[in-house]
Design goal:
Blueprint lengths: L2 H21 L5 H11 L4 H17 L5 H12 L5 H9 L6 H10 L7 H7 L5 H14 L9 H19 L4 H16 L11 H10 L4 H13 L4 H12 L5 H11 L12 H6 L11 H8 L3 H10 L7 H13 L6 H9 L7 H10 L3 H10 L6 H11 L10 H9 L4
Helix pairs in contact: 1-3, 1-22, 2-4, 2-22, 2-23, 3-4, 3-5, 4-6, 6-8, 6-10, 7-8, 8-9, 8-10, 9-11, 10-12, 11-12, 12-14, 13-14, 16-17, 17-18, 18-20, 19-20, 20-21, 20-22, 21-22
Length: 413
């Protein structure tokens, strides 16, 4: 199947799903919305469909739906012509359209004028929303984006500072979890984290000081570090040196993750420590920190990677671990298992991610041959993996973190 025909069919399937989802909310909406989030980056027609979906969902005030979160972010990322009007309407609604709308405001280009509606949202009684609006307002008001009027720039800066500092102390744990997942974690996980306005530093420190979960602590620490606050790194280093013996491994890894220009410490973290260092709830046992260590060939990560892909691979993390071992540690013992999964005869739900893994390992012809078979796959995430391989991409690894999260976990952020 030619690339164009493959994508035409995929766009049609995704577009039909969006139309059906607007009529009746499906049980698997989050997982499918993640596929939309990835595919929309490569499809103008799908972005048009998502702009129409965002319009309908804004009219219904359905801001909590994963479909809305995927749609408004994809429209913002793709700089769609309707972006300004959609964001303006959403921000003027009750509670400013929620954190998904504020996340889209961070992605919107500078020419989209959002200062006035963001300033209104910054006065919202819901503290996490006010905080998000203050962060968006301060980031869009940095020197390269500042208004022509110095007085307007000063006013916007004052509004942002009031929203950030005034709301942060009132943010409860449940709201911190939402704020971290919806807004801050995707921001700090961008390939090149931008410098944040200095006013964000003290606010991130307040969030950090009230946070007990190490993964979320790290998100707030990295955001504060990007705003010029060095206290997080100092705190992590101090706890790694003088904390309890059971916590020193975690704090050593945290100090490296805040300022990862140096090699990682020569430590072998347990699965429990790795799960606690993820920005996701510990109960999810999410392994993203392990793959962060693998990306720099940390010796301490190898044993756990081997444990994830022993014998028969049954989960997407096992696929990713086999690929990391082959790509980063020259251990290709799991490649045959990836080939068997790519054939699709067993564990069909892993076929797409296995094909993507083969692509990353340089098995380009085999990956493209198998990708063609994914066009008729019932699993939409598998179809999108196949479409990405068919596009013969260049650049970052196919299994890079955010793409993997959206397709395999259904996280639309």
């Amino acid at each position: 199947m030619a690339q164009s025909a493959y994508w035409d069919e995929l766009e049609g399937r995704l577009g039909e799903w969006v139309v059906k989802a607007l009529k009746r909310r499906p049980a698997s909406e989050a997982r499918l919305a993640g596929s939309l989030r990835v595919a929309a980056r490569h499809s103008p027609s799908l972005r048009d469909e998502l702009a129409r979906a965002a319009d309908v969902l804004i009219e219904r005030s359905a801001f909590d739906r994963p479909l809305y979160g995927a749609a408004i972010r994809a429209v913002a990322e793709g700089k769609h012509d309707d972006l300004a009007s959609l964001l303006d309407r959403a921000l003027r609604s009750k509670e400013g359209g929620g954190l998904a709308t504020l996340a889209a405001s961070l992605l919107a280009p500078a020419k989209v004028k959002l200062q006035e509606p963001l300033a209104r949202v910054a006065a919202c009684s819901k503290p996490e929303v006010a905080f998000g609006a203050g962060l968006a307002l301060s980031m869009r008001n940095q020197p390269k984006r500042s208004p022509k009027s110095a007085a307007a720039a000063k006013k916007a800066g004052w509004q942002a500072q009031r929203a950030l500092i005034g709301s942060v102390a009132r943010i409860k744990e449940s709201s911190r979890i939402e704020l971290c997942g919806e807004l801050l974690a995707p921001l700090v996980m961008t390939p090149s984290l931008p410098s944040l306005p200095r006013v964000a530093g003290p606010a991130m420190k307040v969030l950090r000081d009230t946070e007990r979960h190490l993964g979320r602590w790290l998100v707030f620490a990295r955001a504060g570090h990007a705003a010029g606050d060095a206290t997080a790194l100092e705190e992590a280093r101090e706890r790694a040196a003088s904390g309890s013996s059971s916590s020193r491994t975690a704090w050593s890894l945290l100090s490296w993750a805040i300022d990862d220009e140096k090699p990682p410490p020569a430590l072998r973290p347990s699965a429990e420590v790795v799960a606690r260092l993820s920005d996701r709830p510990t109960s999810e046992r999410e392994m993203s920190f392990l793959f962060r260590l693998a990306s720099v060939q940390a010796d301490g990560a190898r044993g756990m990677l081997e444990g994830l892909c022993r014998e028969d691979i049954r989960a997407s993390d096992g696929v990713r671990a086999a690929a990391a071992l082959a790509q980063r540690y020259q251990d290709r013992r799991g490649v045959d298992a990836l080939r068997r999964l790519a054939e699709g005869k067993k564990h069909r739900e892993l076929q797409g991610v296995a094909v993507a893994a083969l692509w990353d390992l340089g098995e380009r012809k085999e990956a493209k041959d198998r990708a063609e078979e994914l066009g008729s796959c019932r699993n939409l995430a598998g179809c999108v993996w196949g479409g990405l391989v068919m596009r013969n991409p260049r650049g970052p690894d196919m299994l890079e973190e955010m793409r993997y999260r959206r397709l395999e976990r259904g996280w639309v952020q």
